[in-house]
Amino acid sequence: QVQLVESGGGLVQVGGSLRLSCAASGIMFSRNVMGWYRQAPGKQRELVARITSGGTIAYGDSVKGRFTISRDNAKKTVYLQMNSVKPEDTAVYYCNAFWVRDFWGQGTQVTVSS
Questions:
Q1: Rounded to an integer, what distance in angstroms lies between the CA atom of residue 16 and that of residue 83?
Q2: Phi and psi of 105, rounded to 5°?
Q3: Burial of 68 by CB count in 10 Å (0-12 exposed, 13-18 middle, 19+ buried)?
């Protein structure tokens, strides 16, 4: 049974930092492209960041220079370090794993207050 469990969401002030974690089980973690996506109310889900099994990283344009994705294959965990957060970063953040098919976590709410 595949599980992606996100944690670390919450309320943060503008300019602050937050670290999200996604613990995976039931998948060959090291082979998966791991990613973070987000969805704000009334908007489509969008890519935040993803990291391949080989360590190649891509970021959404709106988070470049502020967010950092990393992975620990031994712990089967992917992280998203969020710095200098803005109100527009408010969304539900979802963890994604892709190898042969997509798997999604349940999401964690991030709210940036001004």
A1: 6
A2: -85, 180
A3: middle
**Tokens for 4?**
């992606």
In degrees, rounded to 5, the angle at the alpha carbon of residue 50 between the alpha carbons of residues 74 and 113 is 105
Mean pLDDT of 75-82: 98
- Token pair for residue 79? 């992280």
Q: Are 96 and 103 in contact (CB under 8 A)?
A: yes
Q: Is the pLDDT of residue 81 over 90?
A: yes
Burial of 105 (0-12, 13-18, 19+ CB in 10 A): buried
- The tokens describing 104, both together, are 């999604």
Confidence (pLDDT) at 100:
85
Q: What percent of the chain has pLDDT over 70?
A: 100
Task: State pLDDT tens for residues 18-29.
Answer: 999 999 999 999
Q: Which two tokens stand for residue 22?
A: 């996604």
